[in-house]
TrEMBL record:
Residues 29-39 have a biased composition (Polar residues). It comes from Phanerochaete carnosa (strain HHB-10118-sp). This is Methylated-DNA-[protein]-cysteine S-methyltransferase DNA binding domain-containing protein. GO terms for molecular function: catalytic activity. Residues 93-122 have a biased composition (Acidic residues). The keyword Iron does not apply. It comes from the Eukaryota. Residues 2-57 form the Methylated-DNA-[protein]-cysteine S-methyltransferase DNA binding domain. The keyword Aminoacyl-tRNA synthetase does not apply. Residues 1-51, 79-122 are annotated as: Disordered. InterPro entries: ATL_DNA_repair (IPR052520), MethylDNA_cys_MeTrfase_DNA-bd (IPR014048), MethylDNA_cys_MeTrfase_DNAb (IPR036217), WH-like_DNA-bd_sf (IPR036388). Keywords: DNA damage. One of its GO terms (biological process) is DNA repair.
Length: 122
């Protein structure tokens, strides 16, 4: 979600460790690949690093101590509209309509479109 990173961060901050189904919080990194510090005196960034490495993701530690994931090797950038959301999908329309109900609806829609096209002056 571009421009909503703080919302995601806050949601993950309050995430219960017992969340079901489990949320892959460790996969959320900054847009430049860095693992964000959780503030002084916390071990969240180190836990994230360990969890990512356990999944086989290489985390590189820079000279300044920043931890970074190489997006070219481990990034995931799906094309728009190609990710399943898990939301229930509407039923596909039936091949054959029963009692002509769908046909009646199509006719009403066509009549409404014609009225809209001529400004409702028919």
């Amino acid at each position: 979600m571009p421009r909503h990173s703080r919302h995601v961060g806050q949601a993950l901050k309050w995430l219960s460790p017992d969340a079901a189904p489990p949320v892959p919080w460790q996969r959320v990194v900054a847009s430049n690949g860095t693992i964000s510090s959780r503030g002084p005196g916390t071990d969240g960034a180190e836990r994230q690093r360990a969890t990512l490495e356990a999944e086989g993701v290489e985390v590189v530690v820079g000279r300044s101590g920043d931890m970074r994931v190489n997006f070219e090797a481990y990034g995931w950038f799906p094309a728009p509209g190609t990710v399943a959301t898990g939301a229930p999908q509407p039923d596909a329309p039936a091949e054959e309509e029963q009692d002509g109900e769908a046909g009646d609806l199509d006719e009403l829609t066509s009549e409404e479109e014609e009225e809209d096209a001529d400004g409702g002056n028919s």
